[in-house]
Amino acid sequence: MTARRIVVVGASQAGCATAAALRRFGFDGQITMIGDEPHPPYSRPPLSKGVLTGSETADSVFLSSNEDIELLTGVAAVGLDRDSSRVRLDDGETIGYDGLVIATGASARRLSGKPSQEITLRTLDDAVYLRQSLDTISSVVVAGGGFLGMEIASSAVSLGKSVTVVDQNTPLAGRLGPLLSDLCLTAAADKGVKVLVSRAGVEIADDAPGQLQASDGTILAEADIVVTAVGDIPNTGWLRDSGLPLAGGVIIDDACQAAPGIVAAGDVVSLPGPGGRWVRSPHWSNALSQATIAAATLLGRQPDTQLGSAPSFFWTEVFGMRIRLAGQLPPVGEPTVLDGSIEERRALLMWPSPDPENAFGTVAAVNYPISAPKLTKLARHPHKH
């Protein structure tokens, strides 16, 4: 392909990684990156950890960007005209492309229709705002017990706040399985965090923004502030009239292509899942592997790896535990303890694959020193141990 200008929509980790891969593969044309936030690109994982506790500064999260790219910040894409190969921007301008990278990520899902009443943690500005809020209050309710919700709870309790987590399901069970989620909940209880499961759903009280209630109006928890961490929604609104296939995200093929000359990577993409459904797996390691494949595809190269050819890698830090995982989530069944001890919260654990069609098992390192590549290698060959 003889592209002279590649436009990357989304100044995200996926967008930056795609730009870097384009340069690595020898693309010497113009790369223009469009970001709707006023900041240069940054890394999200530290926002709920070091930035929130104050152990890392807000400007430590910025990604080094030496890919010789033109960066437009504070401007959002609002439409895509594929016939003329142009992206429409919210300032009234349009920008033409020979190749397009869609890396617009996702936005925080909200419980209420009143964003002013609801604190979320998705952007750098969110993290700075929440960090400042924590300086002036003594109690926090977190709605949502996934990775993000539990990381926020962990950071808040480490700052001496009274913390309650409320979820429809047992926190982390759907991601980590029963054994690891129990470990996290025990560690949370040790730190004084209260956890409530409300099967009837959770909503923010209209007249009392510091209250969480069940859908029948029963008050579940009260605090100075409510922080919601109830998932995210892919940023595909600007593509609604583009004719691109959308189903819970931008549908891509196994070369990360959404249409000829258009690729996508990161939290915005949708992949075929079980039962014919389309699913997103918005994780940092997936964004990076998709970015490399997307860049190769856009330049007409054969990607070195295929989507799903390597086990996914995940990590979280909660309540004094650093848990890193490779493979399928959640792990199923009983693990083999390869080293260490579950009781001492320092162990290397392995689960075989529950599905003979899928070669990957799951390996978890709980406060256990092992490199990410080694962890991934163990997940790839779970039957050899």
Characterization of this structure:
A hairpin with a 5-residue loop joins strand 14 and strand 15 (219-222). The chain is 21% helix and 29% strand. It contains 7 helices and 27 strands. The longest helix has 18 residues, at 173-190. Helix 1 runs parallel beside helix 6 (284-298). By secondary structure, the chain is α/β, with parallel strands linked by helices.
What is the makeup of the main sheet? 6 strands, mixed
Question: Structural class of the secondary structure composition?
Answer: alpha/beta
**What percent strand?**
25-35%
Number of domains: 3
End-to-end Cα distance: 45 Å
Nearest-integer average pLDDT: 91
Quick tags:
single chain; 385 residues; alpha/beta; FAD/NAD(P)-binding domain; 3 domains; six-stranded mixed β-sheet; 7 helices; 21% helix; globular
Task: Summarize the model shown.
The chain has 385 residues and is an alpha/beta fold.
Strands, helices and their partners?
Blueprint (H helix, E strand, L loop, with lengths): L4 E5 L3 H12 L5 E6 L14 H4 L16 E4 L3 E5 L4 E4 L4 E3 L2 E4 L3 E3 L10 E2 L3 H12 L3 E5 L3 H12 L3 E6 L5 H18 L3 E4 L5 E2 L6 E3 L5 E4 L2 E4 L3 E3 L15 E2 L5 E3 L2 E3 L4 E4 L5 E2 L4 H15 L14 E6 L2 E7 L8 E6 L4 E6 L10 E5 L5 H9 L5
Helix pairs in contact: 1-6
